[in-house]
Design the sequence.
């Protein structure tokens, strides 16, 4: 397996990407790593026969307008994705601009035959383990047919990567009753019911972290808002707890005693364990990592990429959307 | 002030509504309360000259199809709303079915002149205090013109009830950049920019609990999903903490020491303090309480109702949407 790694992507790049490479060579010495960076990053690469430096000339900033990409064909994400197109790499991972990664993959690798539009999935850390939600931002405007494809692509992904047979598919709506929803979700409901998928019906925001589903389907607007609302709520709550737990000596002592428990909760809610979000529907394996990814998340992303390759995920996705 | 109270609405009715009445008579003996219930609930009313019993024959269940309302004109929510229509009450509060309350208000009280569709707001417990988000479920499908009206109605509400001058209005989207969003939010962005409102631009899910805004505007689908996603995330996190904090003796001891801090956090994130969500755009004051409201929330809802009346909220809303 040969994995292209964007050294420049992410809030903590290149320190974190370089550290991840070092870790990867130890954990998975059987894989090859094509490390894409400028001269200054390549000079800092760990020395290992598994690591091949690939020079790029620029980078796409996290908040840069995606339309710039077409004029930045020397950017790390474009160069890394081209490696897959040329057959020099089997997969790519990046913690850089999600929009740029998705655009590069769509333009260079193309879509799987039959796929209308690629989607971005994310694995949510639920009370019952990882569950897939898609789309979380690639497609703010959707049709029922598009959402049906997301369901098919998502079900294929959790089958291939999470090993789930006959995945349960929920439709994110404003209530669990069958008649609830927007015009979009009502029409999607009808399609999903006839789809042959294991369709659970409508589910709502508060079901997202319960984990009583395997794939949650929604348009990119609702998915993005749900995801960030949960991130924000958890962040706000943690901040409030921190303030309260240091309010007096008694609580400070108590906080010291429960600290390991808080860490475990933080750990189990940590997306890092799930190694990034797959880009579904492009003709190749491109794993999107959170901008704030640490080594662990990047390592996991490579493992997820290899699972995609070994389970022939892209091929199976093509069969699912037929 | 005469407030109609739906004794039958809510998960904890009538015990909680009866207890709230007792509290209200103590706290606000200057107001009158029209308590709407069946004979069995009216028999349990606290004895007080401020409380007037009003008989109804049935109720709308929490999960009952709203379309049933039209055939249940003896239901508590219909009878209570009629009291406002007849001028016997100035406002109504209920913790029953949101859909039924909204439908009763729309059919009986009608919309404020100029209002296309009423919206449901909710006051979010942010790190900086209460902030209004709307719509949270009444309108799953919206137009840009509708969202503009929500902004105008929301700004009027926070001005009248929360006392905020020149409220800052955010538009909920899938990113903070101006070019982000769906077709709907992009068109709304343009309208809000020209509206004369204090428009902040796009905001995302993780901004909802930060509180760097006064009014957050969105369609009912996104608002509902955001709200319930946050509720679900906080619930899941609290559950995980509880499990971890009782995992061993050391943590149990620590948990006992920080318990008061956890309670304060729970309290500050509690919607009960904000007393329910206003129904905006109907020609009268109708305050929607959370189904799981306790006494405190119902008391606050009555106080909010009176603030609406004293600030002439409905009249000002009509001027704002002109």
Sequence:
């Amino acid at each position: 397996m040969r994995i292209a790694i964007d050294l420049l992507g992410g809030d903590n790049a290149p320190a974190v990407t370089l550290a991840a490479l070092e870790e990867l060579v130890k954990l998975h010495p059987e894989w090859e790593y094509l490390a894409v960076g400028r001269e200054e990053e390549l000079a800092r690469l760990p020395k290992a026969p598994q690591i091949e430096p690939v020079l790029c000339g620029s980078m796409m900033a996290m908040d840069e307008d995606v339309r710039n990409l077409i004029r930045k064909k020397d950017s790390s994400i474009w160069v890394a994705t081209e490696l897959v197109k040329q057959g020099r790499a089997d997969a790519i991972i990046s913690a850089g601009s999600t929009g740029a990664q998705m655009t590069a993959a769509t333009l260079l690798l193309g879509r799987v035959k039959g796929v209308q539009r690629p989607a971005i999935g994310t694995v949510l850390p639920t009370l019952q383990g990882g569950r897939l939600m898609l789309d979380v931002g690639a497609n703010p405007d959707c049709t029922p047919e598009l959402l049906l494809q997301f369901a098919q692509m998502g079900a294929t992904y959790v089958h291939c990567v999470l090993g789930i047979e006959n995945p349960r598919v929920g439709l994110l709506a404003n209530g669990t009753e069958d008649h609830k929803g927007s015009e979009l979700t009502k029409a999607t409901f009808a399609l999903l019911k006839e789809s042959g998928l294991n369709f659970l019906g409508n589910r709502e925001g508060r079901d997202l972290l319960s984990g009583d589903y395997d794939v949650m389907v929604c348009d990119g607007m609702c998915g993005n808002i749900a995801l960030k609302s949960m991130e924000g709520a958890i962040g706000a709550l943690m901040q409030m707890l921190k303030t309260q737990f240091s309010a007096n000596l008694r609580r400070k002592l108590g906080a010291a005693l429960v600290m390991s428990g808080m860490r475990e909760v933080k750990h189990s809610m940590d997306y890092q364990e799930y190694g990034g979000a797959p880009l579904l529907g492009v003709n190749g394996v491109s794993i999107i990592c959170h901008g704030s990814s640490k080594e662990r998340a990047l390592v996991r992303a490579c493992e997820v990429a290899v699972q995609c390759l070994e389970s022939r995920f892209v091929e199976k996705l093509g069969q699912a959307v037929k």
Notes: Chain A touches chain B through 67 residues (CB under 8 Å).
